[in-house]
Amino acid sequence: MTNHEAEPLLTPAEVATMFRVDPKTVTRWAKAGKLTSIRTLGGHRRYRESEVRALLSGTPGTDSMGQ
Length: 67
Hints:
CATH architecture: Orthogonal Bundle
Helix content: 40-55%
Organism: Nonomuraea aridisoli
Largest sheet: 3 strands, antiparallel
Protein name: MerR family DNA-binding transcriptional regulator
Order of helices and strands: HEHHEEH
Radius of gyration: 12 Å
Strand order of the largest sheet: 1-3-2
CATH class: Mainly Alpha
Domain HTH merR-type: 9-56
Number of strands: 3
Strand content: 5-15%
Keywords: DNA-binding
Shape: globular
Structural class: alpha+beta
Distance between the termini: 34 Å
Number of domains: 1
Number of helices: 4
InterPro entries: BldC-like, DNA-bd_dom_put_sf, HTH_17, MerR-type_HTH_dom, SinI_DNA-bd
């Protein structure tokens, strides 16, 4: 088991709530490569909480949402 597997994962709806956008916008960001998604066995997208929080806080070294 790697560290990534133990990390909390967020649903598109949870990420959308944090950014105050529609969940479909979060999916578009993932398709555009602005946010890394993990696919569940059922094909649903999940997002690493640490990556989402870094983007939300504007931490240097992560992709900018305004590209």
